Amino acid sequence: MTMTITEKVAYLKGLADGLDLDKDPSKEGKLISKIIDILEDIGLAVEDLEEEVEAIDEELEAISEDLADVEDMIFEDYDDEDDDDDEDDEEEFDFADLGDDFFEIECPECGEDLVIDESIFDVGEIACPNCGNKFALDLVDEEEEDED
Q1: What's the whole-model pTM score?
Q2: Which residues are within 8 A (CB) of 140 and not within 5 positions of it... i.e. 6 or more apart?
């Protein structure tokens, strides 16, 4: 069994009392007696700190458990919906719902469908977020191509 700091200091104090250092008028006896008194104070302070750390640890553990419960309650429905809908979102998304300001084009490099804002036509070039390929936008209207 390991002794605590307070127990070790109490043992030293017992040894000093057995040597009658308190009654010894020598300078060394007084010094050793004062050192033991300081060690006793330090031991008690350390013991108090250990008790406070233990109490804080217990409270932190309880807070952590409560937070985990709150996270479970908040994100449980969100995670379930997210897992179920991730694959369906791409299939169900209708690009026609974007309105007249947006256009769907296909990347000539990787074939990824890109949705762009009409303001990108002013720039004239776009980089595919999927493959990084930069390509110029062809401003020819498909209906005009069909007529030619």
Answers
A1: 0.42
A2: none
